[in-house]
Amino acid sequence: MERLCKTTRIVTVNGQFPGPTLEVKNGDSLVIKVVNGVKYNATIHWHGVRQMRNGWADGPAYVTQCPIKYGESYTYRFNIEDQEGTLFWHAHSPWMRSTVYGAIVIRPKGNSPYPFPKPDTEALVILGEWWIKEFIEMAEKALDSGAAPDFSDALLINGQPGDLFNCSSKGMLAYSSKLMVFLLSEFEIYLKIRQNTQNINVIRAAAGETVLLRFINAAIVTHQFVAIAGHPMTVVAVDASYTKPFTTPYLMLGAGQTADVLIHTNQPGGRYYIAAHAYRSGSPLIPIDNSTATAILDYDPIFPPLPASDDHDAVAAFNAGLKSPARVNIPAPVDQHLFITLALGLLNCPPGKLCGGLLGNRDSSSMNNISFVLPTKQSLLQAANYGQSDVFSADFPEIPPAKFDYTGNNSDPSLFRPIRATKIYRLKYGSVVQVVLQGTSILSVEEHPIHIHGYDFYVLAMGKGNYEEERDSAKFNLVDPPRRSTVGVPAGGWAAIRFRADNPGVWFVHCHMDFHLEWGMMTAFLVENGAGEMESTLPPPADLPRC
Ligand code: C2O
Ligand code: CU
Question: PANTHER family from the entry (predicted)?
Fold first, then answer.
């Protein structure tokens, strides 16, 4: 791993990597002026923030806004409403988010206590990835040639790979807080690694404490297991919604997922490893970043038992342990049923081009056979708001659940060659929506972390193989399912989610693995208010960028 010790130019915010932490309280209003000082188009997304009636502040480029161009700025104004825990922000224009990200820590309103024992200390544990190549090269490779990008060269915790890498030097910048101007700039960074035990990536606590650790998987590709030697973790929240306390030896965080956990420093004092490695949800033939990132909890170093990289049962067991704290009011009855297939596939290489995808094709991905094409002339939300009819069509196709077999080699071949289109799905405002997300085994079996902007949803059940309505709906947890905004649809399986479409706007729905996203595994929900179009969203801000 000598090659890690190279200087790479990265884009980040305020010269910090990871970027600044937003420390806020539930109910706070945030005003963040994003100034783009880099020559690439940029936007920032506040991942998991519900943005009630306020898609204007959500951020995905060409979905809710046009990108902020070089030298321009846009001020995001939004409120945190009924969300507590940990979320994060990240760039939402192709690939930039590999280095442009930071934490959002949301503490309870006023002086209200946490709904769990008061922690003595808190710390952030942000999982990420590091590429030696510059992001624009990665982006061009994935987008232009249609090939899978190279996997990252190292996994990071709080911006550092930890001491399992043997290239000597010092630690990196740490995060800081309360900076409300986000200046996107490029700077050169030397990925520094500490060899000695003075690893700067240390989380300090005193013996006998309760420590709240806020985990964020900001990686853009890699799902990760993470564990702490000698310290079982009690999960108390995921994606800024509280859970029933669930004690587990490891966490599984898909790209884009967060978890708040409590640990007790009740072991003999010393240094304990915190370690993270990839969950390989796909075929063993697909390369992954198989490095192990480490940090130290201030105790004697003991290596934690991480699940094996391909331990699918460990993933299912982890997910099965997540529940809401108490009985929840599950929206019912269901007004709209939706079945969405998540597939990888191939597109023909455009004439005169050389494509790097499988067999000279462009690799692609799709939802219900649509490989989504983002508009470039206008964002979806602006188009919906101004009634422009030539930006998208609201005819996202429906596929009945039992139509095909999605397991083994039996997947329907028509899903193999998706159709490129900008088709979004209309949800009736206020309606109860149930979505079954079905992973397919087309080209590759993989876990897809599906993120829905503007919404939290209940994860009613997950399973292996094909979803079968009669059999599987009987297994729904209608008592205390977890509430989240990113669900890891099991590799070769399905997940069923439910929510009330109570947030009008246009909301991006996509796989949170970056190249699956860029390849087209995305769509959007257009939620109107019933009385016609978008009038119950806030008006567009005056400084909203134009395409
Ligand atoms: Cu972090 Cu569109 O998402
Ligand atoms: Cu995916």
Answer: LACCASE (PTHR11709:SF287), MULTI-COPPER OXIDASE (PTHR11709)
Q: Are 297 and 274 in contact, with CB atoms under 8 Å apart?
A: yes
**Three-state secondary-structure class, residue 331:** coil
This model's pTM is above 0.90: no
Contact 97 CB / ligand 1 (< 6 Å): no
- Alpha-carbon distances, residue 11 vs 96, 156, 162 (angstroms): 7, 16, 22
CB 497 within 8 A of CB 446: no
How far is Cα 254 from Cα 275, in angstroms, rounded to an integer?
A: 16
- DSSP 8-state symbol, 377: S
What is the rounded CA–CA span in Å between residue 48 and residue 456?
8
pLDDT along the chain (547 residues), means of 10: 64 88 92 90 96 96 95 92 96 88 94 94 94 78 72 87 57 34 68 48 85 96 95 97 97 97 90 93 85 83 82 96 96 96 91 86 93 96 92 92 71 78 95 96 91 98 94 96 97 96 96 95 89 67 93
Q: Which atom of ligand 1 is nearest to the CA of 60?
A: 2
Distance 542 CA to ligand 2 centre (A): 35
Q: Which domains does the chain have, with CATH numbers?
A: 336-527 (2.60.40.420)
Residue 437 to residue 466: CA distance in whole angstroms: 10
What is the 514 CA–ligand 1 centroid distance (Å)?
A: 9
Going from the Cα of 517 to the center of ligand 1, the distance in angstroms, rounded, reads 10
State the closest ligand 1 atom to the C-alpha of 517, by its place in the atom list counted from 1.
Answer: 2
Whole-number Å distance between alpha carbons of 476 and 330: 11
Contact 261, 122 (CB under 8 A): no
Rg, the chain, Cα only: 22
The answer to whether the CB of 47 is under 6 A from ligand 1 is: yes
